From TrEMBL:
Pfam families: Acetyltransf_3. It comes from Eutrema salsugineum. InterPro entries: Acyl_CoA_acyltransferase (IPR016181), GNAT_dom (IPR000182). Transmembrane segments: none annotated. SUPFAM superfamilies: Acyl-CoA N-acyltransferases (Nat) (SSF55729). One of its GO terms (biological process) is response to abscisic acid. GO terms for molecular function: acyltransferase activity, transferring groups other than amino-acyl groups. Residues 21-179 form the N-acetyltransferase domain. The lineage of its organism: Eukaryota, Viridiplantae, Streptophyta, Embryophyta, Tracheophyta. This is N-acetyltransferase domain-containing protein.
Length: 184
């Protein structure tokens, strides 16, 4: 990933060292791939969004929320088809939060770990103002916690009764990675 001064600059495609996945901006032409994970209730279980119900809804979401997102990349296989996405959301000037989603068919193959490792390795170069990259994970979302631990995030603790997710008050685990931390 090259350094960019502005989010308006066209982002660079990033390839993982083993060449298994690449990251690139998502476009409307990814709508069918997007629907594979976005319509899946099991994928959405620990996410704030509800499963998408139609192609029209998917097009609207990509148009309104993906194309306008400050930092979101499709996670792609070698044939360039998207199997999920990974994003970095602003919390404030020095804190950003990472989030990621993969289509269920691709779970358990190391792609989530690879994508989080790629972004963590590069985001501090691209946004040198970041002092802390955070991840807030549902206490029951064991897979996502494992991904973060494998990459070298620090598990800081459980934020008790931290948020309402789909009508249920949830305990959330706070993870962080600082620029001085060691990537695993
Ligand atoms: C979370 C998610 C991205 C993980 O991606 P993934 O590609 O399946 O993860 P990996 O294959 O890189 O696995 C990383 C580790 O987690 C473990 N793991 C993955 N899913 C797991 C699960 N459901 N339960 C227990 N361990 C799990 C793997 O075994 C692996 O550990 P190991 O190397 O010690 O065996 C994926 O499950 C997903 O998209 N979930 C739905 C969306 C979501 O919850 N996003 C995160 C919101 S915070």
């Amino acid at each position: 990933m090259e350094t960019t001064d502005s989010h308006e600059t066209q982002p660079t495609v990033v390839y993982s060292p083993p060449g298994r996945i690449s990251l690139r901006p998502m476009t409307l032409s990814d709508v069918d791939d997007y629907m594979v994970w976005a319509t899946d209730a099991k994928v959405a279980r620990f996410c704030s969004w509800e499963p998408c119900k139609s192609r029209e809804e998917a097009i609207k979401y990509i148009t309104d929320s993906v194309l306008t997102h400050p930092w979101l990349r499709a996670i792609c296989l070698e044939d360039d088809h998207a199997i999920g996405y990974i994003l970095v959301m602003p919390v404030d000037k020095i804190r950003k939060e990472i989030g990621y989603v993969l289509a269920r068919k691709y779970w358990g193959k190391g792609f989530g770990t690879e994508a989080v490792r790629l972004v963590t390795a590069e985001i501090f170069k691209e946004m040198p103002e970041i002092e802390r990259l955070e991840a807030l994970v549902d206490e029951d979302n064991v897979g996502s916690q494992r991904v973060l631990e494998k990459v070298g995030f620090t598990r800081e603790g459980v934020m008790r009764k931290f948020m309402v997710m789909k009508g249920s008050v949830r305990d959330m685990v706070m993870f962080s990675f600082l620029p001085s931390d060691t990537l695993k």
